[in-house]
Design brief:
This protein is mainly α and about 220 residues long. The chain is about 60% helix and about 0% strand.
Length: about 220
Amino acid sequence: MEKEWEKRCHAIEQGQEQEKYLEWLNDKSEGNLYVRETLAENGYLLEELAKDNTAYIRTTIMTRYPESIKYVLAYQKHKRGLTYDEWALIYETLRMTKTIDADAITDFLLYELPEGLAYYRGRLDETVPAFKAQLEAYQHRLEPIHKTMTSKQLYEAGSPHWVRGLSAQAIMRVQYAENELQNDRKKVARILDNLVTDGTGCDFETMLDVVDREKRRTD
């Protein structure tokens, strides 16, 4: 005979009886973990599951539904209960996503680096300026005239919105070029498209090559 928790998991998988999901989530009877896991895998009650005491549940929703990262961070920024794997997952996701969530980035910066992840310090220090550039753009109104401009055009115009649609990694590539080319915006603008590629940023070796070639240009 099928157990009650198995029936609930099957219902969740089929999207049935959704009005009961919150009740099932809070019911600590047999099979509750499996019910919560099924809810997480299928993207239900993300805000509630973000508070789950089991790291596996939190990791599941953040991996499958990155939009839930903001819920996890909002709950954990003061509790500081993230595992090292969770922190790394959040960092890598925020670093690579092209659609920023200002609340998630703000709470992530407030969380700071866990003591046991000192080897991430250098990478985090390089990424923070890119996160802050994303936040600056978010906080400034996008003028109508800028809405149809490309990242390169916005960069040349000195608009903070040049980072729009770019991941933190792509922004980091441009910031590296700025440093190496002594903040010569004309030179950086010439290679910006090569640095940001599809919005996620070129690989490290390509960045070095592109910047080096621009350094050697004489025109």
